[in-house]
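Encode chain A's predicted structure.
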Amino acid sequence: MKMREINVKKITETVKRLCVEANTAANKDLKDKLSESLKNEKSPAGRAVLNQLLKNLYIAETEKVPICQDTGFAVVFLEIGIDVVLKGGLLNDAVNEGVREGYTGGYLRKSIIKDPITRPVNTGDNTPAIIHTEIVSGDRVKITLLPKGGGSENMSRIKMLKPADGTAGIKDFIMETVDMGGGNACPPLIIGAGVGGTFDYAAFLAKKAILRRIGERNPDPAIAEYEKDWLEEINRLGIGPGGLGGTVTALDLFIEVFPRHIATLPVAVNIQCNAARVKSSIL
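Encoded structure for chain A:
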């Protein structure tokens, strides 16, 4: 089969565009869910927050300004077809150049600190990005950009449970993490949970989980039921929009799983704020 050539300049151009789009234009699933949540939110303060969030999304998209002042760490997921040949430079360099041009040209806040222990100064262009690469079938490249804000990231946790803790332990850890975060992660939240693998892979799964569209269930029916049931319990915590109390603490809960060692049960929870910024493009 003939290989398809893609110049890495196209990757730079796409990442640049996605940086701006992700930070200024909310996805339809988020806008629809926030509107739907207005019908379910019983707290007057909670409804006021939801109305303000919807107004903010409208202003951001029409005025081409950031949804949030924290325009995040650029987390980039790449799915590269096995029949693709990349030409013209190194992949990571192309991605970082796209972030550099997107954050600088788009007047987005630069938040990345170089050498956090020995030289804690701002890199000035929001690089380097966090880059996750997966080789898949086909001759396309899918680029997904997730600007991850510091407030919600700070509320994320990982724990090595004992296998005997089982599903009850997993649920308790997710609930505890959301409850401890309170209003600090800017609810209503998107919650990603990664279960299984190793210490590091569970965290990756939790991060990957929040790329899903709101309402997109895990293909395993049993896990899909846990997502729905535990989301209902999370929304009974009473944290509410903006942490001001109410019935809509989270918009969705996504669980991703991977095989584990017989002696381990890693569980990671990655919290996403109400901006839920994710954009994708296929080359």
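DSSP finds eight helices and twelve strands in the chain.
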